[in-house]
Amino acid sequence: MARMAMRWGPGASAARSATHAAIFAPLAPAGRAEAVTQRLADAIQLGLLEQGERLPTEQELGRQFGVATVTAREALESLRVAGLIETRRGRAGGSFVCGSGDDARVALVGRLAATSRVELRDTGLLYGLVAAGAAERAALFATPDEVGALALLVEGGATASGAAARRAENGIRLEVAALSRSARLVSEQVRLQSEFGPLLWLALRDGAVVRGNAERHRRLVAAIGEESPEGARGIVLEQVGWLVDRLLAVREEAVA
After folding, report:
1. By the 8 A CB rule, do 198 and 160 touch?
2. pTM for this structure?
3. Homologous superfamily in CATH for domain 106-255
4. What distance in Å separates the CA atoms of residue 149 and residue 163, rounded to the nearest whole number?
């Protein structure tokens, strides 16, 4: 099957760019200051927004999240009170990340325990269907160079740890969405990545699961490279279902 020669996205900073796209994706229409605060706090606690990193201005945050400037201002104030950011005055001023990611797992496990099994299964189903649809189309349209760039992301994530591993996992999923050539799939994957991704990463808590996930990513890259849309779709559905099962096991331990 002939591939389209269109190129969209891969590069040396693909994982980080994809992560920022997810962090600052628009919220649901009913988004409030608490939702903005939660999104940014998750990113800081996971190490996805790094120590010393400057956040967008209140006006920029409001525009990116799709909320009023006053809502963004309230969210930043909550983050300051929590000790996650600090505000500096002057020409080089702004809001800067100063919180630690050391308590990320504790905070996320608390969220996981408060989420029902039904809700986790339901969200996991939607996440899997969107990711599988993107993979299916990527197998139709990705060029050999793009497949090679995706393979590099996969291998980088397989040997990374901590925040670097989370950025790689994020980057892989969003890069596959970009290769689908579908703006709607990209938008939906970004939204789900920002909402469900931090919880799903809790499933990647030991070496065996990390290795198993990396192997599934490698199989996905191979299916895309072989121009097998059915194979790519099946691998993603199996992978996400497997991760959701691992996540539910983590939840059972948290509520026990």
Report:
1. no
2. 0.76
3. GntR ligand-binding domain-like (1.20.120.530)
4. 20
